[in-house]
Amino acid sequence: MIITSLLDTDLYKFTMMQVVLHQFPAAQVEYKYKCRTPGIDLHPYADEMQREIDALCELRFTDEELTYLGGLRFIKSDYVDFLRLFHLPRRCISVSKLPGGELDIVVKGPWLHTILFEIPVLAIVNEVYFRNNHLAPAYGEGRQRLAAKMDMVRSDPELHDFHIADYGTRRRFSKAWHEEVMVTLKEQMGAHFAGTSNVYFAMKYGLTPLGTMAHEYLQACQGLGPRLRDSQIYGFEVWAREYRGDLGIALSDVYGMNAFLRDFDMYFCKLFDGARHDSGDPFIWGDRLIEHYKENRVDPRTKTLVFSDSLTFPLAIQLAKYFAGRCITAFGIGTNLTNDLSYQPLQVVMKMVKCNGQPVAKVSDTPEKTMCDDKAYLAYLRQVFEIDTPAV
């Protein structure tokens, strides 16, 4: 089967899940899947995906895996005890066919028990699709492309402080190719390879697991906080209360950059270690954040700007040079690392659309990334956060 370990997912799923256990154990949510790549017919593979999901829901954490998680400085013992009893509930996920070849994949149930579905389900969709459409994968081409990317970094003396991380689990070509990429980067990139968001490979190869929060966390706060306008502030405060200064990278694009900067005041500027970019122009985003730090009497050179929006190696290198000496930079590269074998990758996502029965939304600085089932709620959210026009 494709997924053989519940650790085969991104670290931020576990860090968010711990917050859910301690702060929102009764929250009910709904996620929906979407393929943004036009003309993809997934109907022939629906039954195969169903079988993979059946197997996923049979998995349990092993003692070795729980010992590893418990050894991470920010994971608490009661959370590990909860995971000892955990499995993904099959009744909470459904897969059906929609017109035009699209699939309707819906996850619905307690947030605490469904939060770990997203990443492995997307990895399943990708691998089932690619293994049926490319029976003789172009691994040689993939290795050449990977070698060329590594050479870009190793041959440039200006990039001695350049660090990339793997963020590619959800859109990988296959688990086997993902693993080969991890091993190659570890062996050949040295200190330039900062680690991986994939907890399974981090454990297996002694890599640093990386990640803090995702969009779903701040989206859920729309339905959990005291007031919609304060939901972003509420999310940051709850996070800080849980981790007490650890895992201090704030996500900036759930309501757009203007709304983020309004809420990310001096207190949060000093409290959080930095912020992550995931939509809009990354150069403009970084310039604005650096100026924001200066206006709040914080030295931006002490703060980390994490770039993770559709990154390629050339773009990451451009960004590193542009911001050199002005801040600390880090780069999370996904599809361009784990699904670059000359084939068109699938742009698949699974986003939270409801929390406690009410709509939730992400309003992105990249319009096509905005996702919400309720147009009236989306319009209201834009009004509340004053985001009628993109900030970047």
TrEMBL record:
Keyword flag Phosphoprotein: yes
Catalytic activity from the UniProt record: 5-phospho-alpha-D-ribose 1-diphosphate + nicotinate + ATP + H2O = nicotinate beta-D-ribonucleotide + ADP + phosphate + diphosphate
Pfam families named in the record: NAPRTase (PF04095), NAPRTase_N (PF17767)
SUPFAM superfamilies: Nicotinate/Quinolinate PRTase C-terminal domain-like, Nicotinate/Quinolinate PRTase N-terminal domain-like
Pathway: Cofactor biosynthesis; NAD(+) biosynthesis; nicotinate D-ribonucleotide from nicotinate: step 1/1
Posttranslational mods: Transiently phosphorylated on a His residue during the reaction cycle. Phosphorylation strongly increases the affinity for substrates and increases the rate of nicotinate D-ribonucleotide production. Dephosphorylation regenerates the low-affinity form of the enzyme, leading to product release.
Keywords tagged on the record: Glycosyltransferase, Ligase, Phosphoprotein, Pyridine nucleotide biosynthesis, Transferase
Residue ranges of every copy of the Nicotinate phosphoribosyltransferase N-terminal domain listed in the record: 7-126
Top-level taxonomic group: Bacteria
Gene Ontology MF term list: glycosyltransferase activity; nicotinate phosphoribosyltransferase activity
Residue ranges of every copy of the Nicotinate/nicotinamide phosphoribosyltransferase domain listed in the record: 162-387
The protein's name in its UniProt record: Nicotinate phosphoribosyltransferase
Organism of provenance: Pigmentiphaga humi
Lineage start: Bacteria, Pseudomonadati, Pseudomonadota, Betaproteobacteria, Burkholderiales
